[in-house]
Protein: 3-keto-5-aminohexanoate cleavage protein
Amino acid sequence: MSTPMVITAAMVGAETTREQTPHLPITAEEIAEDAVRCREAGAAMVHLHVRTADGKPSQDAELFRAAIRAIRKRTDVLIQTSTGGAVGMTVDQRCGPLTLTGEDRPDMATLTTGTVNFGEEVFWNPRPLVRDIAKRIKALGLRPELECFDVGMLDEARYLAKEGLVDLPAHFDFVLGVPGTLQARPEVLDFMIASLPEGSTWTVAAVGRHQLPFVDEAAKRGGNARVGLEDNIYVSKGVLAKGNWELVAEAAKRARAHGREPATPEQARKLLRLS
Ligand code: KMH
Ligand code: ZN
Structure:
């Protein structure tokens, strides 16, 4: 039987707005409601950002706590918190969710391993900042998802491993198609996979119109996929997804078409070597 496919729902993000789609969840209850439906549709994990009541991106620990509690009250989906936040945030702001311990501790956290252009802006990740976040993730006893927006970020993960800040094999997320950086093409995905440290696992998060086609590309290659309103708001050309769950349902359909069942949270925990 084929390895189950871990589908991650990137539900909120920092850039998508209610003006772009009325279906973006913002409050803890809205996030939890959509997360329940994502889990039912086949997501094993949610990639979580939070917003203030007026919809602004935030990395506030208490907003994360409220969202995590609301989700865990209703579903067993794994929770991966962002440490990327929004461009322009300080490292302490970005690490808000890494201050949550005990029953509010997330299951995983992201770690972007280098600086990239991000549309018209810069997603700033110089080495000292990356080391700082890597240490905080380790101190909390979490495994990072290494967010690679470009090929060199894979090599940087190896460098972090040499410094003892990241354990290999690791779990990587190839973020493809952000304007200003590496674009979403099948040959790019092949090169990223070939460049992985041995034994590592991977997810692909392709943005915009590439999101759903790259679920197929990932399924064919034995990898995992991330979908959701953080990266794409359309379920088909010009048709808004009615929630993250609709993108997850479409991803699950595509996974099954390639003989891959969506992983349960328990299976994802084993596949991604989470504690
Ligand atoms: N919002 C982007 C600038 C992450 O979540 O770790 C960064 C981001 C990455 O979304
Ligand atoms: Zn994110």
About this structure: The chain has one domain: 7-272. The chain has nine helices and 14 strands.
